[in-house]
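**Backbone geometry record:**
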Amino acid sequence: MTIEDLCSVTTIRISSDVGNERTIKKKKSRKIRVRKSLVICSADWNLQKVFDACLQVFNGPGTVPCFQDVKKVCRILDKMDPEDVGLSRSLGFFQPKTESEGNPRVTTATIYKSNNFEMCIFLLPSNALIPLHNHPEMTVFSKLLIGKMHITAYDWAATDQVIDSTSPSLSKCRLAKLKANKIFSAPSDASVLYPTSGGNIHEFRALSPCAFLDIIGPPYSKADNRDCSFYKETEHEIPSEMGEFACYRYLEEIDPPEESEMDGIKYMGPQIVVSAS
């Protein structure tokens, strides 16, 4: 049985604002189809621990967790298994009988969301792509739970002085430094990116059916100028003074591509306990 067999589908448009489900114009609004139910398992201790830690670590927009707090969250995430979020490698989704063709859609389920942080799961069929995008003013913890994926990640270069602002072809480009271009396989340690470092602009390509957990603080919010932007690599020549070509690329902002549309499902895995205090 696949995850699709467990779900019924409703189509909505969402914004990046907490609790808002009305139709909104974004750069190009992403359609999210909400499906009902996932899989329920019982191993919720690590999930509760990481949630409790995040309540202390994320202090709202404009703040970045300190080194000790980052290590605290990573230590918990490093111990997490698929079962901690209601998944299992034995699910049909992770053992497809045929290879996915084209660009199959990504599925996402939100575990928790507040103004300070969001916890969500992403499910990627083989060959699925989450296109190159950023996390403005955010700290993001990621934990690959199942599968194998290729990740390309960039940070903005320290200076844009090398860009010829008089060149029409570069007027919409910005120089970025490559931070990662490699394959990751589960189980793997947690990774973390920051507002200006750690690979804040990244792309995921599933090499097999994958699942990963993201903890994003603060969440995307168009009202607070934390909207998601998408980019593409360009072939513009890198100035010789920047050193090795392979380390740098000019990135150009683009409209949200088709691959940015995701199917949303209601999270029905182990539940966290939110204190009333």
Observations:
- The longest strand covers residues 173-185.
- The chain has a mean pLDDT of 83.
- DSSP finds two helices and 14 strands in the chain.
